[in-house]
Amino acid sequence: MGIRLRSAVFVGFFVSLSVTGPVFGDVAAANDRQPLFESHEPLALTIELPYQRGINRDRLGESEYRSAEVTYVDANAGEVMLPVEIRTRGKTRRRKKTCDMPPLRLRFDTGAVAGTLFASQRGLKLVTHCQDREAYHQYELLEYLAYRLQNLFTEHAQRVRLVQVTYQEKGREIAARNGILLENWRRVAKRTGTTDADVDGAVRMESLSVPDVNRIAVFNYMIGNEDWTVLWPEPNENCCHNTKPLFTTAGTVIPLLYDFDYSGLVDAPYALAKPPNNDVRRRKYRGLCHTQDTLEETLVIFRDKREAIYDMVRSVEGLRSSKVKGTLNYFDRFYKVINDPEQVERKMIRACKVE
């Protein structure tokens, strides 16, 4: 099948991550500055929004944008207030029975944000806290960690900014929690010199970048994530599920991977494993069979990054010691597999997907 293109927190902690060696994607290209993502310091925001009769009711079907305001404090300019439009997004986390606060999409006026921290931003996704329980704060930190870990391996990944959000309606506080702002995937394309395009239908297997597909497959295996595909769309959706195709000048597709709350690393209570697996912590390799001849080259990269990965896990402030230990043990089991040729053959190469 061919490709059809339609158009080219306040919870008593914060996160500080640092790693040694080069980290792809942490610094924007000089000609495409995005000040928002040039720091990993948590950013305090106040969002004034219509919650009870707006956002909290907009849980099904097509959501609508509603007027809101985002406020933050600039070290030089003082308090900065920006007009913004907000709507709900997502599927599982959008449901009221799953999350008290649904995930949000923010839409800015590029003229209004000129010269501010949000300069050049148009649309941003905000991963919200879901529920007001300590366990959910931990899940959010682990999802933030997953995005940051991905940036160790590629520049074709979304950068993230941890935010401490106070949600208000008519000046009354609704909640004050951590959140994650995600770099827009089209800005990733611009930053990396690739082309963004919505694909109506499937992506041709022959067009996929083999090294990047292997990287995504191994990364997802490492974090225990089966909730993705680089080839097929969901019903009535553009291709592909939890990946976006970025096109190189040669026409090769580099999938951009996102959305990790269903991974074993995060282990959210609402995450469902794909049958016949009954545990999201149990890894299953979903790499494509036609790329496995070069799998070893990818595994070498992951072996080389082991210390940087572990350092990043340990550096998450606010992550409980039990979560740190559990995450390191989870990654230990991943490395036990990829350091054993017999297990690589049995659990990865032989388990590959034909399509």
Briefly, what is this?
The chain has 355 residues and is of the alpha+beta class. Helix content is 24%, strand content 19%.
Radius of gyration: 20 Å
Mean pLDDT over the full residue set: 90
Number of helices: 7
Helix content: 10-25%
Order of strands in the sheet with most strands: 1-2-3-4-5-7-6
Structural class: alpha+beta
Global outline? globular
* Unreliable parts: 1-31
Q: In percent terms, what proportion of residues is strand?
A: 15-25%
Strand segment tally: 10
Reported for the largest beta sheet, the result is:
7 strands, mixed, barrel
- State the order of secondary-structure elements, H for helix, E for strand: EEEEEHEEHEHEEHHHH
Distance between the termini: 12 Å
Can you describe what's shown?
The chain is of the alpha+beta class and 355 residues long. Helices cover 24% and strands 19% of the residues. It has 7 helices and 10 strands. The protein has a 7-stranded mixed β-barrel with strand order 1-2-3-4-5-7-6. Strands 8-9-10 form a 3-stranded antiparallel β-sheet. Helix 5 runs antiparallel to helix 6 (321-338). The two termini are 12 Å apart. Mean pLDDT is 90; it is low at 1-31.
